[in-house]
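Obj.: predict assembly geometry.
Materials: sequence records (below).
Method: joint structure prediction, all chains together.
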Amino acid sequence: MKVLVAVKRVIDYNVKIRVKADHSDVDLTNVKMAMNPFCEIAVEEAVRLKERGVATEVVAVTIGPKAAQEQLRTALALGADRAVHVETEERVESLAAAKLLAKVVEEEQPQLVILGKQAIDTDNNQTGQMLAALAGLPQGTFASEVAVEGDKLQVTREIDGGLQTVELTLPAIVTTDLRLNEPRYAKLPDIMKAKKKPLDVKSPADLGVEVASKLTLLKVESPAERKGGIKVGSVDELVDKLKNEAKVL
Amino acid sequence: MSVLVLAEHHDGILVGATAHVVAAAKAIGGDVDILVAGENVGAVAEAAAKLDGVAKVRVADHAVYAHQLAEPMGALLAELAGDYSHVLAAASTTGKNVLPRVAALKDVSQISEIVEVVDADTFKRPIYAGNAIATVKSADSLKVITVRSTGFDAVAAGGSAAIEAVDFVADNAQSTFVKQELAESDRPELAAAKVVISGGRGMGSGENFKLLDGIADKLGAAIGASRAAVDAGFVPNDMQVGQTGKIVAPELYIAVGISGAIQHLAGMKDSKVIVAINKDEEAPIFQVADYGLVGDLFEILPELESKL
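Observations (raw structure tokens):
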């Protein structure tokens, strides 16, 4: 079966972000960017399905500026067969991203679409669910285990309080949680080979999707700073401070 | 203006988060209705009817809504949303699973994990692992929103709303429930506890987490963990506090053997008082801790337990 994997270019998760002085957004100039960690897990799962002979073809897709092709090349180096880039310089909210992905799903007709559960920049946790709704497909969100059995998919999901297993009819949408797998690193020869793999570029207009959103970002602020704390010298002092100063015991 | 709140419930019990979501709904204004969907949810509906400020409880009691699978729940909420200007749910795994589906079915944006209501169209929410707060305004006619419970104080019980049945039955041929494995715990729920004590990689093993038990018992605390402790297999993943786990904001948060990566801080830095116990004086956790104690947790924890 064909597997489609969506990846997103985001700020590297180790970077300490800065809010712009005019509060219009977070400052992303000259900041290290990378593939969203949950998307890495999605790519890894697709590649493992291919290695097990379940998937026959893995297609990676991204939406974003020209530079996002770096992340597609990474996906190709990790084992994806080809890539689709929906190129736009505009800010794409989850709903528009889901609409664009739904068009790609319509064109590619994959049996399984794997996305990360959330992107670490906007922290939305929406696109996979929205894509499932728009494509009229079932969803297995926050997956920590995925097993294809004939025309069904068993997904173990991380829920509050424990784990839940659901069975979905294929085609289906899956979003990855952290414990689904441990992503591999790209090897140098694979990085070289990835440069030769096919990469299609489309525009939102090609797909007939309007990217503009009814959601406006009015302001971005730094969170309230915590006051600098103190170091105590002993357990006795700690208990005393908690009882008499902080009054939380 | 009218707001529909999706009730959160498990095992026939209304979950505390719902009372926080009702508080957010009251901040938006207008009539507040609650939807209780599931199988055999009579007791949940009764409990929801008692929440302060609720006008009406709508009950969809049918086998198709058992375990609140996303496909039938999405269809149900999309069907009812026409009567409302806002649809709200807790930013729990249920709310996060269902609400984006509802939004897409209604062709509107979804706003995730709000921590403040500015007005009926404008909301504040954390982005970049809580390192920035975004103010967003929605021009959609229907607002679909998940609410971070730690951002709103729960409403009290004491109301007596009317309860009415919802006839709509979604069909669902796409997904079936197979099984559920829930972690056993008689401690307070992590997200709602007044005191949380968490262990990290520094705990060394799952066995050593028992060192936290005595302190948790004395303080009536919930026990949490960092992702490192979960990944090392010390404790189950539903104990994880952080960007990808639970968000907590207790009165007192005690971090033991936790370095304080930004992903962990995203889950606890709104706690009122933070205590860090770590042998590494340079650990980033000390930058957010109100009280820090540098030392060996294997000596400190037994001493702390004996002195509480």
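Conclusions so far: Chain B touches chain A through 88 residues (CB under 8 Å).
To do: check interface contacts against the pulldown list.
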